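Give me the fold.
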Amino acid sequence: MVAQLGDLSNATYSIIPAGTNGGAHTAPYPQFVAFVAGAAKITVPGSTQEAFVHAGKNGLLFAADTAALSRGGHVTIFTKETFLMQVPTAGGIVPPHTVLYTGPCRGDELMR
């Protein structure tokens, strides 16, 4: 399985201690976030939406809730020491995609 991610720009590698609460924040720019190791719980302020992200084959997400598009952004609580690769898209362009519904991917949509 191969996925074309589009034009990319820059990259950041972060090591985040377990228990770190990133507080409510927006994505600095549209970016792919790859969980290389670790795990986190991501919530949306003022809603019941939450996602649990674990490193590995289902540990890739796209963050597009920039300040221009989101009032509250999201809250990330790292439940394990986590190693992240953050890779913004060139020019801040959100790749073509289809929104299926609000919320995280469901079990049958994840890679097995």
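The beta strands are 12-16, 21-25, 31-37, 39-43, 50-54, 60-63, 74-78, 82-88.
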